[in-house]
Amino acid sequence: MSGAKLIYFNGRGRAEIIRLVLGYLEIEYEEEYLTEKSQIEKLRADGKLLFQQVPVLEIDGRIWCQGGAIVRYLARKGRIYGNNDLDASRIDELYDGSRDFWIAFAAIGFQDEAQALQTSLISKTMPRYLPIFNKILEDNGSGYLYGKSVTLADLGLLEALLMVHEYFGTSSMEAFPAVQKFYNLMTEDSKIAAFLKSPHRKGKNDDVYVSTVMKVLT
């Protein structure tokens, strides 16, 4: 695949999974960060935002909008989307579940009641999703969510687990041994480890990121 350009903010948000997939597939890309409202207005005026929102990925001679469409395109091209329609549907199912898990963490920094949000993550979100993914991993038996190698679904779950680890520590996964083993397996992968150490890996939501997003989008 040719080089690419990712247009988003200098933060994780809805673009971090795209960065993770690009990193795993070892696709070189540059980033254009939105810092002013005029930038997104120009993108809209130029017809680059099909649904008037970011992220946007320019790759292979065209512009892709919508995060889900972007990562699925990359997954197909990178052959981490199964071998047939049945595989792809199962991977979609698992990936979409990982997005439901991840979205609760994405709100950190954007809500006034930070402590209430973290309490909800501990008491509701993690107890809901960690047992489900633990059983899926146990049932599959390969260390991965589906099949015997990394798929888009694994990268989706990893993004959520990276945030679990950052905010609540490794001990939060101790009761779910298959999840803990999966986390170790994925983070020890050389391509993922390289991404996590690269400038493309963004930090936690901070005041600068949150204020920039609000300035550009409101």
From TrEMBL:
One of its GO terms (molecular function) is glutathione transferase activity. Residues 2-82 form the GST N-terminal domain. Residues 84-210 form the GST C-terminal domain. It comes from the Eukaryota. Pfam families: GST_C_3, GST_N. Transmembrane segments: none annotated. GO terms for biological process: glutathione metabolic process. This is Glutathione transferase. The lineage of its organism: Eukaryota, Metazoa, Spiralia, Lophotrochozoa, Mollusca.
